[in-house]
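In the laboratory, one determines a bound structure by crystallizing the protein with its ligand and collecting diffraction data. In a computational setting the workflow is compressed into a single prediction: the sequence and the ligand go in, and a structural description comes out. We illustrate the idea with iron/sulfur cluster.
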Amino acid sequence: MIGTPLAGNNDWRKVLENFSLPLSVKNDSLLVECYNILVKGGNVDVELGTKLFESPNLSGISALADLIKKSRFGDYVYFNDNLHVNTTNICVLACRFCAFRKGPRHNDAYALSVEEYLHRIEPFSEIIDEVHSVGGLHPDWDIEYYENLYRSAKKSYPHIHIKSLTAVEVKHIASRSGLSVEETLFRLKSAGLDSLPGGGAEILVDTVRNRICRGKESSAEYLTIHEIAHSLGIKTNCTMLFGTVETVRERAIHLHKLRSQQNASGGFQCFVPYPFLPDKTRLPEAQLASLNEIIRVIAISRIMLDNIPHIKAYRMNIGSNVASIAINSGADDIDGTVNHEEIMHEAGSSARLDSDSEELAKIIENVNSTPVKRNTTYSNFTRYRRKPDDDNRRLPVAQSTS
Ligand code: SF4
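The predicted complex, in structure-token form:
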């Protein structure tokens, strides 16, 4: 859209009001109700969200989500240059959906020393501006390990933003160290922790959590830990793992809880929904998510989370092809270059790990969108221009007419 700033429109509801609705939205009273609520400044609640999950009109839901995304960000789609480094796969818990964790005596168990951590970053340090680090709940590591890790990383690579720790890791470090969550986050921030990635939300309904990740932090604890981070000026992100044992109403409740937390503390930057991948996990009763459901979740996230700006199509889980469909169904971000990833790949993901900026920009351009490189906090943007194709073999892209 001409005139959309690289950071997006704050006044997106007015832009949305001026769009003409496609027939798939205009002829659907549920979608018209959602549209009217949003342009008037309201939000789509659990009842309407549940109806969206039950609606047969997926094309209309995607079209409305796409309009909302375009109202906010035009045809821009964001990505960044990052690297994933997991600190340890040793974990005192055993969530049933997790293919990553290992017991301490397992042959493949590892726990990186600070030197090994820095060594992992070193080959990429000139081309990334973010390291994304999460890991298991190591039985012996307290806050001193993490303070040392972040201080050392900042000393060696001061330009790299450290996005690290899920809420349950924060809880575990606090408990191991005899500190409150607030003291823990304050000390980690002082040592160099810049933001939290948001993993571990799963479904924020405790009956579901008890079935898939008993012993993990409760729904309220997940939200409180993020609230405390926000109060300390630490930006965070939030996630949803779907396709295990939850109902569609529980998905809507999850989205509503995140929206309410954002209303209260305001520090969520991006929502990252991803489907459960079953390889090497212990959840045979999981329903699994079809392609249609993945797109539906991303689209409904965009419709319900009117106060969380960015919705990510997480390539590491859903792959580049599905991510490219998601771009036209409400997503405005496809994450980063990543370079190395274990958690989703252990569970069966085959997403490529050698994508560079050119490759990501190509995924975005191939669905008629414009690639924009961002930093982790979405405060710095550069319109990314690919090198011209040598052979000009790109296929023409179908344009929407309504
Ligand atoms: S999801 Fe996290 S807390 Fe749960 S077993 Fe895996 S590594 Fe441990």
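Residues 91, 93-95, 98, 100-101, 136-137, 168, 213, 216 surround iron/sulfur cluster (CB under 6 Å). Keep in mind that any predicted model is a hypothesis to be tested, not a measurement.
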